Amino acid sequence: METLKIEGKRFFEVTEMKKFEIDHEKVSSTKLRNLIAEGRFADIPSLLGSYFESQGTIDSEDNQHLIVTLSEAFLTPPPGVYLIEIHTEGNVHEGIAHQIMEGSF
Question: Relative to the CA of 78, which of 10, 27, 30, 40 has its CA 20 to 30 Å away?
Answer without folding.
Answer: 27
